[in-house]
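Quick review question:
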């Protein structure tokens, strides 16, 4: 299923219920943030090494999948309402990040791009 067809399905779902009135950019952004928080809460007290075992429990995996789907769904609705082409926006952002985080400076570390700038060799 494509992003376009998922977006259309979500749009139809909202229209059938007359929910467009509630799907303002502000409300959708808040809902997206709330769902991201619900996803985060599932992992809140787990150590990194515990996650894979925790996900072996089907109820935990289903909870994660549902929260991820909620986040994705609200993001798609927000993009639809704002007429944002998410695929194009993501490709553009990847290009921006490639400039900010050149492979030779960013490989193997988690430094922010502003800290990487000081690692650039001086131009001769």
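Suggested answer, residue by residue:
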């Amino acid at each position: 299923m494509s992003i376009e067809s998922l977006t259309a399905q979500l749009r139809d779902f909202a229209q059938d219920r007359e929910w467009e009135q509630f799907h303002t950019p502000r409300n959708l952004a808040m809902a997206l943030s709330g769902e991201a928080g619900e996803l985060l809460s599932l992992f809140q007290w787990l150590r990194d090494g515990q996650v894979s075992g925790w996900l072996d429990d089907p109820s935990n995996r289903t909870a994660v999948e549902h929260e991820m789907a909620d986040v994705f769904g609200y993001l798609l609705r927000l993009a639809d309402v704002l007429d944002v082409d998410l695929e194009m926006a993501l490709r553009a952002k990847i290009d921006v990040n490639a400039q900010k985080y050149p492979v030779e400076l960013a490989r193997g570390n988690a430094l922010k791009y502003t800290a990487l700038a000081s690692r650039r060799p001086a131009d001769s």
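Why it works: Helices lie at 3-16, 25-43, 51-55, 58-82, 86-100, 103-106, 113-116. The mean pLDDT is 95.
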